[in-house]
Structure formats: C-alpha cells, structure tokens
C-alpha cells in the first residue's frame, strides 16, 4: 500500500487514527463536496481488549455512532480479548464534519453492559475511493492513561453523485444485510419484528465414566450451557463419576439455520477455582425440528460421555409492534385467541398456557441521569427468559414509547418485569426504575400508572410508568403447569454476601420457628388446664376426632383453615398482617443494593481490594478472630480462603432463605395471598378427600408403588419432580409479596425519602 508523508501520518494520529501499513501515494486534493457520501467499513478484529469479567475475559461488541445516533452494532464475541468480527457495514453520511464514534462494550445479560473504551475516526481525513487499514486505540475519557487495547478496521469513503434517492435505496438494501445483529432499540424502524424463530429444549440426563478430579477418586460435577448470550448452569452432583441430573433448559433459537450450543463440564471445589473436566458442542443445524433427539456426546479435553435429549420446536408469536398494530384490539383476532384458550381446548398443547399483551404508553417524572438535567430513557419488558425492548427517547424525562409487546405465557405464575434505563454514550445503561407485576394480578384492559421502584423492588424511586396489559389464558392448563418444575432464569450474576440479607433471612426463620413454638405452647396450655373452658373443649374435640377418625379426614382438616380464612377475608377481616413487618425489615436494605452502573468493573487489583473490604467488614461484624489469624498467617492462600468463607456464608444465607420461604409460602397458601393457588389447593384437597373416602387405602398405595417402580421402565429419561414442592414454588414468599405490591402515588414525598430513593 502506498505511504503518505510524515505530516499526513502525524495529522491522522492526532485525529485518533493509526494507519496500518506503508503508503507512497501523494495525497489527492479533496473533490467538491457532493450531496452524499458512502462509508464502507469492515470491522476486522480487536487486540488486547480490557478485562471486564471476573473470569479474566470479556464479551465484547462494538457500536458505531454518527452525530449522536447509533448506526451499527456488531455481534457479541463471547469470552475473548482478541475477538475477530469480520463484519461489513455501509453507511450513508451527509457531511464529513461529524466523526465516526466507535465504542466497545462488554455484554452482560440484564443490560448492565460495561464500557471497554472508545475512539473517534475523523472522516475528513479519509481519502476518497481508497480503502485504508485503520487501527483505533481505545481510551476511557475519564482515565486517558489506561491502555484499553485497539480495533482494526478497513474503511472506504466514496462520494455519491447523481440521484440521492437511488443512493438511499441502495443503502437500505445494504442496511438489511449488515444489521443482522442490530440492537432492538432500532425496532421502531419495523412495523412488527419477530425476535426468535424457535425453542431449543435440552434435557440433561446423565454423565458416564467421568474423569476423577478429587483426591478421593471422585468428582462433584456440574454442567454449563451457553448459546450466544443465553447461559444456564446445572445443579452440582456430589462425589460421583456417573451423575444423574435430570434437568431441563430452554433456549431461544434466533437463526433459521440453527446454531451451536457450547457445553462445558466442571468439578465443584470449595475454596478454590473449579476444575475443568471437558467440553462438547451441539450443532443444531444437523437436528430435525419437532423431534426429540437422544445425544451421547463424548467429552473433548476430558473423559466420559454426557447424555442429553434435544428438541427443536417452532416459536410461538413473540413480537414488538407500534400501538396502532396490536392483535387484541382487532375483534376478529381477539375472538380467535379466546377460542384458542377456551376450556374445550384444555388438553391441547399443554405448554401453551396463554398470551399476554403489554402496551408501554409513556413515563412521567423520571430521574435525571445526565448532567444536563435530562435522561435518554428506554424500556425493557421481561417475562421469564423472554425480553423485549423499546427505542430510546432522547433528552426527555416524560418519554412516550407507544409500543405493544406480545408474549406467550408458559406459566401463569410468571412475573412481568418492566424496567426503565437511561442510555449513556460512554457507559452502560443507568437504572431509572422498575416494576414487577404478577400476571395473575393484572386487570385486563386497564390503563394504570405504576410507581417505579428501586432495583431490589424494596422502595419507590422517582417517576411513574403507564401500562395497559391484557392476559388471556386457559385455567386448566395453568393449573396443570403449576405441578411441574418452574422454568429457570438465565445465569445473571453470582450470589454475594450481604449482612443485611443474612440478618433478614435469620429473622424470617426465627418468625417461622416462633410460630411453631407458640403453637406448641398453646397446645401445651390445654394440657396444663390454664384455661378450664379451653381445655374442656379441646378434650371433647380430641375424643370425638380419635373415636371417629378416618384417613380422609386429614385432607378434609386442611380444607378447614382455607375455608375459615376465606370467610374472614370476604367479611373484611384480612388475616394477612405480616406484609408491613416484612416491609419494615426490608426498608433499610435498598441503599446496600444500589450500585453505580456507570463504573466499569474493577480490574484484578481493585477486585482484590473490594474483597478485602468485604472480609474486613465480616471480621468486624461477626468477630471471626480466628479467621483473621488464619489470613494473617498464610498470605499465599488469601484469595482461596476468602472464596471458601464467602461460599460458606452464601450457603448459610441461601439455606436460611429457602427454609423461611417454604414456611411463608405454606402460610400464604392458607392466607389466600394468591387466590388462584388457594382455589387450586382446595380442588386438590377435595379430590384427595373424595379418593381416600371411596377407594381403600391398600389400592391407593399399590397404585402409587407400581407407578414408582415402573416409571423408569416406561420412560428412562423422565425428569423427576415433586408436585407439592413445585406447587409451593409458585406461591410468593413474604419478600416477594412486598416486591410485587403496587405503591400508591405520592405527589409530595419527603426530602429525606427522596434523597434515599434517588441517590444519584
């Protein structure tokens, strides 16, 4: 390639461009300014990009902006600091005065993407009709001394003479080819956009003859699945080389021709880094649709085999459209949907429970996230693992989106989450507010103003959002789906140690234990004749019950508190009095969870300092002096010991939460917190009472035992589940009841409250 003189190179480097390769050609004089320019860019690769993930890697993607508008977004390359994109894009520009602004981000599910650097490409310095190799050094405007790596591009600038209309049509065709991975913020260009084309259902069955990784000759294996940004992690099976998982995971299939699912096997080690045990890949393009495939995949870089069942199914309608285009406002389409979920079709396609349509109208009074006193808000709507997003409204605290989102409902107990973010030029999106709405709480066709809450849904933040939601579902399908395992969420973030969360869970468990103790004391008081009248009544009831006892009376007795609480609630005496106590318990935790999303993830040394602070806080709070002595004596294994302590604390924290949650869910079932689930419990208990009354116990036990013994023979790869635990998993705990409660509009919040809820 010809070289320029030194002055030209210096000029380009001052403008932020580093030309790769020599050049001998004389600079050509600029032609008269045409009406349009076509800018062809090949995004080649990145070199030595910044580390943003705890694993020592990043998931980079690139954005191009001109005059403040995003014109291109690359695909995401996962776990790579030297990514190769090799993507082409053609842009139509009217003036060369606005530089091309290039930004690199690390993708994190949940839109908390981390800034990895930016650079400017000044278009005025480019030669016409000549392809130039360009290296852009990435910098952070706030920390210009940091080296964040570089990007390599090939750029060609061509004046567009003649009919500008023809040039526009040409670029539209090029845009359709180059914007395959374009952000959904540009979805307002399309009247209606289908996002994914199918569902990939993977059942992880078992592993065979895996590699021993521990000193005892065994392993503690678990599996990680990854398909694009979608990630799952299986449970850990301790001390085995032939684990049985029996878990199911669903992925969205975006490509018509399929894709790849990356699978890695790991050995869980407490206190140190988990050991890698092997990997394998599923090429979905080789599998036929609407058919279940049994795969026995040998592990590369390891030993053994993984057994999976993989099914590809067509996607139901999940879409985003303008307010003027929505199916439920069309009487004919609405009637067809009502027929589709009518009681007559209760046993047709049990996975298709219903449909929900969300109209995101507008927001008012949002928090100002920019220094100009404005925000650039956009809205994200999530239902389980389905996520859709509006366009961005720039420089506005009262944005209007007028978008309609359509989701298929796989579980009527799912919670619709609507989150408002502020788009930032150089950083990840700022959190502005969030609401969580259980589908069963929705009043169809009602346009409501929802007060935005904090990130942890524990208190209000600034602003309201106006939504109109419709849910149509089949009650029989919804009830049957309640008795199967709940769908797992994508892996979003690792659990962390929190003193407030640990204390809250401890207090919740203590309340459950105190309830049992008080119940025992009440029964004991009947034996002690503290109240003669109560003891006489208890004695008479005991004699009558024991004398006339039949097995069917057990489920019948469980129906009595349900009926009693229903009568109390119907008469206006609400027995649900624990919500305020839980709110008081959670009110001081909001500040602890709030973090500045604009700060990039710390590097290895900053991360170590943060972990030191966590440990010192734990030492000061819990007086673990023996841990301090251990850490001081062995500096070499400091991080391993720290991780071991964190793992133990997280295990205790999660165990307390699980115990407390099950106690609260049982209570909330009888308290009619979710009427649909309480009615379902009444139907189940009534059915059990009838069966036990009319059918001898020996026949019931015989049928149960034969079913258990023959289950593996009838379906060797069935996924085991406990229907009672699956039912309870749908009942909200007291914490979730507080998170899902709607807040009343407060036109004049106190200054202290405003300061607390709006720390930014």
Automatic annotation (TrEMBL):
One of its GO terms (cellular component) is synaptic vesicle membrane. Keywords: Calcium, Membrane, Metal-binding, Repeat, Transmembrane, Transmembrane helix. Residues 595-609 have a biased composition (Basic and acidic residues). The keyword Membrane applies. One of its GO terms (biological process) is regulation of neurotransmitter secretion. It is a multi-pass membrane protein. It comes from Larimichthys crocea. Residues 1-31, 588-609 are annotated as: Disordered. It comes from the Eukaryota. CDD domains: C2A_MCTP_PRT (cd04042), C2B_MCTP_PRT (cd08376), C2C_MCTP_PRT (cd08377). Gene3D superfamilies: C2 domain. This is Multiple C2 and transmembrane domain-containing protein 1.
